[in-house]
Design a protein that fits this description.
The chain is mostly helical. The chain is built from 3 helices and no strands. It has a domain of 44 residues.
């Protein structure tokens, strides 16, 4: 495993300490790794959503919508799904 040295704000450090004190995690490193895993999973979920949209678009043909309208609609769908 790679070792890293990071600087975090005092409120974030207090939150990390509270998580360890609550026995939910055994160390701050475990928490940081968990948060990174969750962020990576969320990113992958967004990419899967984009892939699904592209596949759907390929299967259903062209649209009259502009690129800006497509982007706006996609962002709105992500917001509604709590993914953005």
């Amino acid at each position: 495993m790679a070792r890293q040295s990071i600087t975090i704000t005092e409120p974030n450090d207090e939150w990390l300490k509270a998580q360890v004190d609550s026995k939910e995690f055994t160390s701050k490193s475990e928490i940081v790794n968990d948060l990174i895993r969750k962020a990576r999973a969320q990113e992958e979920k967004k990419l899967d959503w984009i892939r699904a949209k592209l596949i759907n678009a390929e299967q259903n043909g062209f649209t009259d919508m502009t690129a800006n309208k497509i982007l706006a609609r996609s962002k709105e769908e992500l917001r509604r799904n709590g993914e953005l």
